[in-house]
Design the sequence.
């Protein structure tokens, strides 16, 4: 008998989930323990395991689609079993009704499953729509097409680079054939699920699909049409490109676990489809004794980077302007910062911190081989410990309540070419200084190369912005909502200071804390800064 599988609740705060990738397709045999799909929650992308066995008869939520928990995700049962009543939400169909379903039942089934709308697609043709590449993405911009109409496309080929509200990501094809049509040109922006491209056999007439905006033209379904594959929306698969040029396919969860364990995915043998690396492959991986291949492409990539374009010559006395189209990232930055500034009543608290002991401590720490810690790393660590003592700073506002976060996830603002991104250090309070330093350098480097995953920019509870390396001594930042506060870090300045009644040369740094007055009162913010000052001025206290 067929079993209904619903969208699972994979975290305590999850209210809806997005199907990132289906690991089985309709008609596949499913055994207990098989991975059905990768589901993106509010916290992570997780593999979803089947507790049933049979044949996958129906998929209710396509790749890239989001649905509330307990929504119809899939149906598993016996091959050939009639599931029309389950799809339409009814009880098990009796044998008498199985042979000739009522017209109303057919109508319900067509409404419930989008596969009916795509039944008249030409054989082998697949419609690819604008994917949802981040939890907050509502539209995307095609930065670059990596294939052109008429090109052959293989499974795993990169189709395009798509700019979301958080990053520019390579978009991979899960289908093979010929690129027959491009629906969104380079530089154009379109909502998610818009017609992005059509892939199919060379020479196929797709004019009817184009005219209908990506859905199949209205037609009576024939047996041949029923056999045609349903419309698929490709979803990104995390990959690494090793030196030999071969592409390594890996699930987002496998990539995350490999990163945490320091495992090179190029060494892991994938057990999934087409050699795809799964969570279990990484967890069961045993490092080889041989030295791991080191990617030397980063240095060469920098040297081969194109020289910046020369500025146009403007004769004296001549008016000259240049119009630069706003990127998706820039639009989102403008929208969110405006919302933050005009909805959250900001106020700023400023404190001056003596850095002499911190400079001595950093010098001692960095004398240890293979250790590199920056002043910013020390500020991050001190902030994490101070947030544990003052959890009201680590909060967020909602209309009905104030949410206090007892876990500390610090976001670090990183300037990139198109704007600003905030990669997150999860559970920062439990990280050592060297771990913070390594993680920040890795995240910042990948942010500038547009290689960050959307999940690496989610879940911050507090943010730090540092402009000290640019010589800025003091500044105020706009709160990165839903955080309630952001810390602005200035440059270390050598100047005369008073110590024990004597004027001596010292090193100081200005810290500015922007607070949301709805959640943080002035005294609470001041007490946090006092604790932070104590940690930074006496780094040894961070070990207590």
Sequence:
């Amino acid at each position: 008998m067929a079993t209904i599988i619903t969208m699972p609740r994979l975290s305590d705060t999850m209210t809806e989930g997005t199907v990132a990738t289906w690991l089985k397709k309709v008609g596949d045999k499913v055994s207990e323990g098989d991975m059905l799909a990768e589901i993106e929650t509010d916290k992570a992308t997780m593999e979803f395991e089947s507790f049933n066995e049979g044949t996958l008869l129906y998929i209710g939520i396509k790749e890239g689609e989001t649905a509330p928990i307990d929504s119809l995700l899939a149906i598993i049962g016996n091959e050939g079993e009639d599931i029309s009543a389950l799809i339409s939400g009814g009880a098990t169909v009796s044998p008498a009704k199985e042979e000739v379903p009522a017209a109303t039942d057919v109508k319900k089934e067509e409404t419930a499953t989008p596969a009916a709308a795509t039944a008249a697609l030409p054989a082998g043709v697949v419609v690819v729509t604008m994917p949802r590449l981040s939890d907050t993405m509502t539209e995307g911009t095609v930065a670059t097409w990596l294939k052109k109409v008429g090109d052959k496309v293989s499974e795993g080929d990169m189709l395009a680079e798509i700019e979301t509200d958080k990053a520019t990501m390579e978009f991979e094809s899960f289908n093979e054939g010929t690129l027959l049509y491009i629906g969104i040109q380079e530089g154009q922006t379109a909502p998610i699920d818009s017609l992005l491209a059509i892939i199919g056999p060379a020479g196929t007439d797709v004019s009817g699909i184009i005219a209908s905006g990506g859905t199949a033209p209205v037609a009576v379904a024939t047996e041949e049409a029923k056999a045609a594959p349903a419309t698929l929306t490709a979803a990104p698969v995390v990959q690494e490109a090793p030196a030999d040029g071969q592409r390594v396919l890996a699930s987002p969860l496998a990539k995350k676990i490999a990163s945490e364990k320091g495992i090179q995915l190029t060494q892991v043998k994938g057990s999934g489809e087409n050699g795809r690396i799964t969570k279990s492959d990484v967890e069961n991986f045993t490092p080889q004794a041989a030295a791991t291949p080191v990617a030397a492409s980063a240095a060469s990539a920098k040297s081969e980077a194109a020289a910046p374009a020369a500025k146009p010559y403007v004769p004296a006395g001549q008016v000259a302007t240049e119009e630069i189209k706003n990127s998706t990232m820039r639009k989102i930055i403008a929208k969110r910062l405006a919302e933050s500034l005009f909805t959250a009543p900001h106020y700023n608290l400023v404190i001056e911190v003596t850095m002499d002991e911190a400079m001595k401590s950093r010098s001692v720490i960095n004398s240890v081989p293979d250790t590199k810690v920056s002043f910013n790393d020390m500020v991050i660590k001190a902030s994490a410990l101070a947030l544990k003592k003052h959890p009201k700073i680590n909060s967020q506002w909602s209309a009905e309540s104030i949410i206090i976060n007892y876990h500390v996830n610090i976001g670090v603002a990183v300037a990139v070419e198109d704007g600003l991104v905030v990669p997150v250090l999860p559970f920062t309070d439990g990280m050592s200084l060297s771990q913070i330093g390594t993680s920040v350098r890795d995240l910042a480097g990948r942010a500038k190369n547009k290689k960050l995953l959307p999940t690496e920019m989610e879940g911050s509870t507090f943010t730090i912005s540092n402009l000290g390396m640019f010589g800025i001594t003091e500044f105020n930042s706009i709160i990165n909502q839903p955080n309630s506060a952001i810390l602005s870090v200035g440059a270390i300045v050598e100047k005369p200071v008073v110590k024990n009644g004597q004027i001596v040369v010292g090193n100081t740094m200005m810290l500015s804390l922007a607070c949301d007055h709805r959640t943080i009162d002035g005294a609470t913010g001041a007490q946090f800064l006092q604790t932070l000052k104590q940690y930074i001025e006496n780094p040894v206290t961070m070990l207590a």
Q: What stands out?
A: Confidence is low (pLDDT under 50) at residues 90-119, 216-245, 289-306.
